[in-house]
């Protein structure tokens, strides 16, 4: 066993790979020791339709994921063009297995069986996530870069019955994020890493958080901005990526500065980081497969569940200009069910159209995105 292990380690430690195994393992172990304990950031957000279709993966391959998923990816060699631009489009994902929203809307509409509806949805939770993203990527190994503007919201609501009657308790966080990232192909001598893509992003967050109750008889799921608590935070991402021919690897630490905040005027906390994710991908001319894993547990906002995702995505270019995609995501925390996803992509000259769906046993949602390359 020792002889075999040493032989494998020697093969992986070769100059051809440019990444000594012992130093790589030391770096990963150090990273885990720093971030794996008592780090409880908000969930790793979905940001584009292609990634939604691929199960949420995106830290190890594709310049399209630079800035939002891994800033190092803008140091990839451009594929016959200079710039990549994503046009913002609203996308929404509702998780409402108990039909809380429908029940509340029936009650506010004057339903005759209001008491029965309250009994059915009492103590149940409604979740909603929505986003819009504008991204510009200029990929080049010498000094690539990207800018982004993203608006996304984690919204939850719970039906509460107490001595004050029946209420809808809202807890949500809305984030307006602007950022710029740069990346380059370089050597990191400290860890003996050669030809590594290294990237960093600086981001400004404008935060609105909500924590309030309203009587169920006149409740609304449109968040009330007059009750929002506003904050602003400056933070940074660091990303690494390395290619071994068709094999790609990626590591990202999002929001390296921990930022603790309160949801609205409540005592419920949320923080923006750090979030650590690793990924490995295979990419050929016709296909791409990626596996991603969270190294930090992410705390659900409000009443949402905590997450620690393992995800897999597969893309196949069926023919020129048409892509078929599938994805799978499993929350490793608690006893959460699996999530499947899929979608298609069309490339017509410089125009790219992406469509995706994401589904579990209780709900199915979709996403769409328009992009240009030039």
Can you put this structure into words, describing what you see?
The chain is mainly beta and 374 residues long. The chain contains five helices and 17 strands. The protein has two domains: 1-35; 36-373, Porin (Beta Barrel), CATH 2.40.160. 13% of the residues lie in helices and 50% in strands. The strands form two sheets. It has a 14-stranded antiparallel beta barrel with strand order 1-3-4-5-6-7-8-11-12-13-14-15-16-17. Strands 9-10 form a two-stranded antiparallel ribbon. A hairpin with a 2-residue loop joins strand 15 and strand 16. Helix 4 runs antiparallel to helix 5 (114-121). The termini are far apart.
What fraction strand?
A: over 45%
Helix content: 10-25%
CATH class type of the largest domain: Mainly Beta
By oligomeric state, this entry counts as single chain
Strand order of the largest sheet: 1-3-4-5-6-7-8-11-12-13-14-15-16-17
**In the CATH scheme, what's the topology name of the largest domain?**
Porin
Q: Would you count the extended β strands for me?
A: 17
Largest sheet composition: 14 strands, antiparallel, barrel
What order do the helices and strands follow? HHHEEHHEEEEEEEEEEEEEEE
Mean pLDDT figure: 87
Helix/strand-derived category reads: mainly beta
Count of the separate structural domains: 2
The shape is globular
What is the overall number of helices? 5
Low-pLDDT parts are 1-21
The CATH architecture of the largest domain can be named as Beta Barrel
Radius of gyration: 22 Å
First and last CA, distance: 53 Å
